[in-house]
Amino acid sequence: MSETVVIGGGVAGLASAILAADQGHHVTLLEMNPQVGGRAGLHEEAGFAFDTGPSWYLMPQVFERFFASVGEDIADHLDLVTLDPGYRVSDRGLLDSTPQLTVDVPHGYAGVRALFEQLEPGAGPVLDSYVESARDTHDLAIEYFLYTRFSSFKEFVSPQVARQAHRLPKLLASPLDTMVSRTVTHPLLRQILGYPAVFLGTEPRRAPSLFHLMSYLDLVDGVRYPRGGMYEIVRALTRLALARGVDIRTSTQVVSLQLEGRNIAEVVARTVPNTTSGGSELEVFPAENVVAACDLQHLDTALLPPGRRTRSVRGWGKRDPGIGAVTLLLGVDRKLDALEHHNLFFTRDWDANFDQIFVDRQLPEPASAYVCAPSRTDDTVAPPGCENLFVLIPAPASAHLTGARLGDYASRVIESLGERVGMPDLKSHLLVKRVAGPGDFTTQFNAWRGTALGPANTLFQSAMFRYPVRAPHVDNLVHAGAFAAPGVGLPMCLISAHNAVEAL
Predict the structure, then answer these.
(1) pTM for the whole thing?
(2) Which fold has domain 108-221?
(3) Most Cβ neighbours (<10 Å): which of 109, 133, 324, 422?
């Protein structure tokens, strides 16, 4: 039985631990924070249960496939609810007083098509073609481009891939924004087709049009929600890990890797001090295999010696860390009927909004924003008569932007949100208010420049250009998580765990 150490207790780390243990490895998982989950965290306060990270449940087949791979039925672990409408969209961002158009994107493609026709007569047939292409690309990606380590050209030699070969160069080289603009002209419809780029840590002008496949997920496949919140996924994974004998060590931070030649021999970790235990203690974990499911820039620059790094400090400087985020957890003592479960507020000048983030590297104003109100669907996440709000504003990835420095900006966001939901005095109805910025991600997760999701899925940071699954200079080290292929998001993290453990 080999000794396998997993660094990082996020979704990718938990999934890697489960898969490795299922294959007979003795697995120790080391997580620096008091709870597992990583960015898919949980904050409980005053009767509210806030998801602190991912909140969209997409690609259900990936979740089902993972649970099935270890002999489990996902229905035994998650109570999934289909959302209808899938989400609400407004063409006015926060910190903006211009008039707005608000529409609901319904569950079911027939309703989605009708919405597109309503806003842009004649858009139905072109949407049909767009969605058909998205479906084909999604199916191709699932079958051939996601569950792979990009280790051999033979992985892509198949009749199915060959039939699509003429499309792939354009899908990779052409931006998503270009593909969307050729499909519809109505600004809000373009945003509905383009916003998934933000889920990839980038924006429509920088994301390859390959990722139009995501429109199949929300417009056709639909949006689901695990009752109890997204942290139920973490709870389920934790149960599976413990049932397979995984030794989960929380509040345990890896501080060094002891190498013998081209192999990690030992992982040295420090017990993170708390108010009860006082000082820290070092513990050494022998390792025959190591799965790094952590921030890989931190792994390279802080834990590995120069000769064993995948990328140098200079190499990391040339990469795109993706998007940062300002997040607010708001517990409101009233119900807010103007909100659906998922709410997207888009600025009208979208390009200017993204330029503020990626070019000017400043907090956007006006600001596109996402507001999740799970209590609209789930009465277990807030006290009776109250609303649970998770507010996310895309921002520059900057370690200097901490919640402590965002007080004025957050206050104005709350004021603007209150105006939008018909509660101008929203501030006076808050039972809980917590603000975090990209810098807090750096503190909590060692996040490279405070990246909210992981490196952007741009052309040269996607697929075979992403961080390799197997470390090139350390023989017993593999990588999993949002930094590695196939990319950011919970489904991608589950797939990365599969790819990593397969490489052990």
Answers:
(1) 0.94
(2) Guanine Nucleotide Dissociation Inhibitor; domain 1 (1.10.405)
(3) 324
